[in-house]
Each structure stands twice: as structure tokens, then as C-alpha cells.
Amino acid sequence: MKKIITQVSAAAKHLLGVFVFMMMTYSLAAQVYWAGTISTDWNNAGNWLDGNIPTASDEVLILNGVPRMPEVLSGTATAQLVYVQSGATLTIMAAGILDIKGATGYPLGCFFIEGTVTNHGRVTLGQTATPGDYGLVNEGTFLNSAGGTFLAERFNNIAVWNRGSAAVLTNAGSLTANLGDLGSGANIYNEGTIHNNVGGEIKTDKNRGAGLNNRPGATVTNAGRMLFGLVGGNSVSIFNFSHFENRQSGVITIINSDAGIFNTTSGSNSVFINEGRISIGVEAKTNSPGIINEGFSGESITFENRAGGVIELGDTRVGIHN
Predict the structure, then answer these.
(1) What is the value of pTM for the model shown?
(2) pLDDT tens per residue across span 255-283
(3) What is the C-alpha separation between 87 and 39, in angstroms, rounded?
(4) Which residues contact 228 (CB under 8 A, 6 or more apart)?
(5) Which of 5, 40, 77, 118 has the fewest Cβ atoms within 10 Å of its own Cβ atom?
(6) From residue 158, how far is each of 2, 50, 208, 255 by CA, in Å?
(7) 41 forms bridges with which residues in the sheet?
(8) Residue 46: CB partners within 8 Å, gap ≥ 6?
């Protein structure tokens, strides 16, 4: 654990002052501030305010207003928590790995983004026995690019939380979001916008709640592949309360699940559009209907399988409940 520096320059005092109170409210771990005085290299000790590269027991704060924003150029960067302030950026290059251990709860999450994070390499969250309740909490912009790998697992409540209407998560690589064996929330909880682009793959397993919970006012577009329940099942693989679009190149495969797709309403209209391919219960049985399309009085609900769209229902208790 590192000491927090108390005698710093005026510029450094600005960095320290913005979030010290908030950080102290939620954690006693050492807080390490990015300064960016020499270069963009995360693994250069001179770029950190206390002159030390962060370790797995440190909370890393990346604030705006510094000369250079950090990049994990190569090798492995570690932390207990990483916070990226609005206006700040963090980039993980193709040869870089960012390993965040966790054990921190909301509002910070394990990886708390208000700014912009771009991953071309590998990001892992929760590689400890008890990483906490929340993995990625994104209120800004998170891009997992083609060739990028993102893995969040073992969390108790939400592995990936795209929080708030302004949050944008775009995946063109491999994104895996899992809870622990006793996890009961959602692997992916979306309040903003999620794009799974062509070539992107999103995988979720082992959940007593939902694999992907798309909340009222939120949007999901899938042009890549989504895979639910390959290792362990979900209570509901896709809970849609708003707008979900599976485009022509999109493939959704649901293997183990109590219910495949639950298209419903909660105070607003809901639309699920399929132009691609959906497979439910073909490789393993689902214990409830493959597709449930059920709204409430006064709210519009639509499930539309457009021309060219394919829905394959295998071993389900009921194929479609409308």
C-alpha cells in the first residue's frame, strides 16, 4: 500500500482535491493519481504523482486537465480500482493488459468510467475470490475494438453496468460478462446504448437474474454474435424493456436458460426486431417459453421478425408465448 503525498504543487493539489473526499468515503485503499508529466506510458513511474507504478492494492484515479492521458502500451498494468473522470481518456494498446482486481462496490465499481476508454488489448476484471458487487460501471464511452478482449467475472450483482442514458458501450471484439455462483443481478445491465458490431462477440453465463437486461429508454443493436448460457444458464437470457434490434448479420444463440427472450414493458413501449438469426433451446433445453412477448395495459409491445429473419426454437417448454 502506498502513502498519499501531502506536499505537492498547486497543479497537483488540483488533481488531489477533486475526488479525495469521495474516494475516502468509500475506501481506505491507497489512491494513486495519474500526472502524465513525462509521457503517456502507464508503466513509467515518472508519470504518477507519487512516483510509483500502481499495484493490485491501489485505486487509480485518472483525472482531466493533465498534460498527457495514459496508455497501457505493453505488459500488464494492475490496480484494485480504476476511475476515469469525465473529459479524461485511457487507452489499452494491442500489446497491453489491464488487470483490475475489484473488491469495491458501487458507486465506483471495479472499473468506473465517466470519460472515454478504448481497449485494443486485454482488460480483465474480478480475478480474485471476492471482487465485489459491480464490475464495469460505464457512464461515459467504452470501446472494445476489433482484437480487444474484455472479461468481467465473479461479481455479485452486475458484471457490466452501462449506467445512464448517455452511456455508450461499443463492442467489436470479445466481451464476456459473468457473475459468481451466487450472483443474482444481471450480467449486463443497460440504461444507455450498446452496439455489438460486425465481428463482435458478447458472452454471458451463470446468472440467477438476466444475462442482458435492457432497461426502459435504452437501446441494444446486435450485428455480431451474442451467446448466452454456454457454461451455465441464466434465469432469463434477454430481458427487453425498450428497443432491441438484431440486424441481418446478427446471431443470437441461447443454450441454457429458464426463458430465452422476455420482451415486456415497464412504463414505456417496447420493441424487439429480428432481421438476423435467433436460436433458442437447440443445444440444450429451456425450462420456460423460448420467447415471451407480454406487455401491460396502455403500453405498446412489438416483436417483429422481419423478412430474412430466422428464429429457430428447439427444446423449449413453450415455443412462443404471446
Answers:
(1) 0.89
(2) 877 788 999 988 789 999 999 999 997 65
(3) 18
(4) 203, 204, 205, 211, 212, 234, 237, 238, 252, 253, 254, 255, 256, 257
(5) 5
(6) 29, 33, 11, 21
(7) 71
(8) 37, 38
3-class SS of residue 22: helix
Average pLDDT, the chain: 86
Integer Cα distance of 164 and 218 in angstroms: 9
DSSP-derived secondary structure for 215-261:
-TT-EEEESSEEEE-SSS-EEEEEEESSEEEE-TT-EEEE-SEEEEE
What CA–CA distance (Å, rounded) separates 266 from 289?
20
Range in 6-20, 217-231, 296-310 the model is least confident about: 6-20
pLDDT band per the 50, 70, 90 thresholds, residue 18: very low
Report phi then psi at 65, rounded to 5: 90, 0
The enclosing H or E element of 26 equals helix 10-26
| 299, pLDDT greater than 70 | yes
pLDDT tens per residue, range 188-213: 999 999 999 999 999 998 767 789 99
DSSP tag of 1: -
- Decide if 29 contacts 80 (C-beta within 8 A): yes
Sign of CA dihedral 19, 20, 22, 26: positive
* Predicted pLDDT at 229: 83
Task: Look at residues 179, 162, 190, 175 and name the one whose alpha carbon lies nearest to residue 233.
Answer: 179
